């Protein structure tokens, strides 16, 4: 099962797809090198977004002149027709292309439909008519909206978080998409960095022959890991199942996935790291999170204005200010040697 077809779009691609959010964090030269290596290694599907700063520009630089060899999915967070067209033209220009394979509404608060008064779905139809986009998709983190999107029959792909930490109800979406011949693009297969065993994450994904995981890749070493799975796909062995069960027990309930949708914070708190520091520091080498810079980052939690902006924007319904407080209290204990890390 090395290839995946995204429902009625007919897009068939290697099951290792590239999530281009993290390449924002590296310079142009490194990003271009990684993207080209990904293509050389068999990756043909690249997912980005207008919101991911210069990610589209990096993809444009990497693949100029070979557009027909790859698939590009990007997203607009616009909520008015005017912003929609501005975003689309900007994306086309930065990506150095005249069409986008899948154009997605990026985490909209409603499932846009024709005649709903917003004019947004009509923009998609018009863009398709003009040949600027080939397929219409939607991304979301909310279960209810995801169901509405599938039930509407208006969208060709749904992008939704899927990992071995997903609930049964979330996993049901994959089967529902299959039944309705809709493509399923799986984001956050590593749950924002909390899943540290990529082989286990990959093995979990192989159970779903219609879900295309877009692996968020920033470093060449990460890319190499995923490319190595092409010839030697990790199996869902008893050992891996045990690890998944252990992680599920450890990472249940109210935990921050690090998505960053609640940012920017007016007090400049790096919420996507600070609100899950207790997990990060215990699930990855702790010294990375104990540097003077990391301590400074955590200290900013003291400046929280309790404005509630973050909680109101968290797609997981988390009480973010409370989570920040808890994580900071734990962090201070770690610094004082009163709490354990690995
Ligand atoms: S409640 Fe605190 S952490 Fe959240 S956005 Fe406001 S200042 Fe930032
Ligand atoms: S608090 Fe919520 S929105 Fe903010 S980074 Fe964590 S999961 Fe994402």
How would the blueprint of this fold be written?
Blueprint: E1 3-5, E2 12-14, E3 17-19, H1 28-40, E4 45-47, H2 55-63, E5 71-76, H3 81-94, E6 100-106, H4 120-129, E7 133-139, H5 143-152, E8 157-161, H6 168-179, E9 183-187, H7 198-205, E10 211-216, H8 220-231, H9 238-250, H10 271-274, H11 277-283, H12 292-299, H13 309-313, H14 320-335
Parallel strand pairs: 3-4, 3-10, 4-5, 5-6, 6-7, 7-8, 8-9, 9-10
Antiparallel strand pairs: 1-2
Helix pairs in contact: 1-2, 5-6
EC number: 1.1.1.-
GO molecular function: iron-sulfur cluster binding; metal ion binding; oxidoreductase activity
Protein name: General stress protein 69
Principal-axis shape: globular
**Structural class by SSE content:** alpha/beta
pLDDT under 50 segments (min length 5)?
A: none
| Count of folded domains | 2
Helix content: 40-55%
Question: What name does CATH use for the topology of the largest domain?
Answer: TIM Barrel
Read across the widest sheet, the strand sequence of neighbours is: 3-4-5-6-7-8-9-10
**Biggest sheet, in brief?**
8 strands, parallel, barrel
- The string of secondary-structure elements, in order, is EEEHEHEHEHEHEHEHEHHHHHHH
CATH superfamily of the largest domain, by name, is NADP-dependent oxidoreductase domain
Beta percentage is 5-15%
Number of helices: 14
What's the end-to-end separation, in Å? 37 Å
Organism: Methylomusa anaerophila
Keywords: Iron, Iron-sulfur, Metal-binding, Oxidoreductase
EC number: 1.1.1.-
Protein name: General stress protein 69
């Amino acid at each position: 099962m090395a290839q995946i077809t995204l429902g009625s779009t007919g897009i068939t691609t290697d099951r290792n797809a590239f999530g281009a959010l993290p390449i924002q964090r590296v310079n142009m030269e490194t990003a271009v090198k990684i993207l080209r290596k990904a293509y050389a290694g068999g990756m043909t599907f690249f997912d980005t977004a207008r919101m991911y700063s210069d990610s589209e520009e990096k993809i444009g630089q990497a693949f100029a002149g070979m557009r027909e060899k790859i698939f590009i999915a990007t997203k607009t967070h616009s909520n008015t027709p005017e912003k929609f067209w501005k975003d689309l033209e900007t994306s086309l220009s930065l990506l150095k292309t005249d069409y986008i394979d899948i154009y997605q509404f990026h985490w909209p608060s409603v499932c846009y439909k024709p005649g709903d008064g917003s004019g947004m779905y009509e923009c998609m139809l018009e863009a398709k008519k003009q040949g600027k986009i080939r397929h219409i998709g939607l991304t979301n983190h909310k279960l209810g909206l995801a169901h509405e999107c599938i039930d509407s029959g208006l969208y060709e792909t749904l992008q939704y978080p899927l990992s071995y930490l997903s609930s049964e109800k979330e996993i049901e979406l994959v089967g529902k998409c299959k039944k309705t011949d809709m493509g399923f693009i799986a984001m956050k297969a590593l749950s924002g960095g909390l899943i540290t065993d990529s082989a286990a994450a990959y093995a979990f994904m192989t159970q779903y022959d219609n879900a295309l995981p877009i692996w968020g890749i920033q470093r060449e070493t990460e890319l190499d890991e995923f490319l190595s799975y092409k010839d030697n796909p990790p199996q869902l062995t008893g050992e891996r199942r045990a690890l998944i069960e252990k992680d599920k027990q450890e990472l249940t309930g109210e935990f921050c996935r690090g998505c960053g949708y609640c940012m920017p914070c007016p007090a400049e708190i790096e919420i996507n790291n600070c609100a899950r520091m207790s997990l990060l520091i215990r699930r990855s080498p702790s010294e990375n999170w104990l540097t003077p810079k990391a301590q400074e980052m955590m200290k900013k939690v003291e400046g929280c204005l309790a404005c509630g902006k973050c909680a109101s924007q968290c797609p997981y319904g988390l009480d973010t200010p409370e989570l920040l407080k808890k994580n900071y209290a734990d962090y201070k204990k770690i610094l004082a040697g009163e709490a354990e890390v690995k």
